[in-house]
Amino acid sequence: MVALAGGVGAAKLVWGLAREGLGSRLSVVVNTGDDLEAFGLRICPDLDTITYTLAGLSNRAWGWGIEGDTFRCLKALGRLGADTWFGLGDQDLATHLRRTSLLSQGWGLAAVTAHLCEALGVEVSVLPMAEGYTPTLVKTDAGRLHLQEYLVREKCAPRVQGFEYTGVSRQRAGPGVEEAIRDARIVVICPSNPFISVGPILAVPGIRRAVAASRGLVAAVSPIVGGRALKGPAAKMLGELGHPVSAEGVARIYRGLLDVFVLDERDAGSAPAIERLGMRVVVRNTVMDTSGAKRALARALLRLV
Ligand code: FO1
């Protein structure tokens, strides 16, 4: 199985899939459009969220960062006049130091990620979508912002007008990504934001084509339930960009790519309209608020094949 993944919602599903025994038979292609360069370090929040979750390290309340982490280094940086709006924990910093140091020795991001996963005991194959640094910029009424400036510093307040996946069109899919998609019996687009998590992955040359050409099943899980995003600004972005703020709005974005759309029970009434878009609809509980719910959704996806 291949999962295309962004942040916290994706990490929950991927955790469920790993717990259902997929282990090394699961490859997770992860968005790196939310990467940030700060304090001379390469920070890869989505890669780290997936890795920490699979390693059982992630902060239970936030879903990102490390449980029990402290912020002493960040506080000290603030004392020295640095901007400290991006909350880097002390243990999390170790990941960024190690990653940056290996990158500066000439390692590629995929090799660094595999090394970090091995060190943390993660069996699942975690694959960056591409090797380069390709930050997503958010075009807003307050100007063009780096995605993390929009999400964290501005708390998603500015009105969104569009996105720029900078440099993505000059990238190639990361090592192993196209092969994993080609060989997969099922490709799952996780319940992630279609613009800032999945959009950059599908914009990498070769990846959308590989998904479209896949002989396996292509499924997406809706990140919108009852007209709202469970986490993050997906609903706000859909509305500001003129899309229907609903699961159907997301299904329309993926139209032509999907065989199956997994819809939450609360939205079962939208099934006929989504089926008219040319995809099969499967209705399940998609709210992964317990370990059992994560595993049940994972099993439902596995049952599709
Ligand atoms: N999200 C926040 O809302 N505030 C933060 O200060 C913050 C810091 C942070 C540090 C490391 C990391 O891996 C993730 C972090 N996140 C933070 C989450 C991050 O902005 C989002 O999860 C993703 O980038 C969205 O895909």
General description of the model:
The protein is an alpha/beta fold. The chain has a single domain (2-137, 167-303), classed as Rossmann fold. It is built from 13 helices and 14 strands. The chain has helices at 8-19, 45-54, 72-79, 90-104, 109-119, 147-153, 177-183, 194-203, 207-213, 234-240, 247-253, 271-275, 291-303; strands spanning 2-5, 27-30, 36-38, 41-43, 125-128, 136-140, 143-146, 160-165, 186-189, 217-221, 224-225, 228-229, 260-264, 280-284. The strands form 4 sheets. The protein has a 7-stranded parallel β-sheet with strand order 5-2-1-9-10-13-14, with helices on both faces. The chain has a 3-stranded antiparallel β-sheet with strand order 7-6-8. It has a two-stranded antiparallel ribbon with strand order 3-4. α7 runs parallel beside α9 (207-213). It is globular. The protein starts with a strand and ends with a helix. The model has no long low-confidence stretch (mean pLDDT 97). Ligand FO1 binds next to α2 and α6.
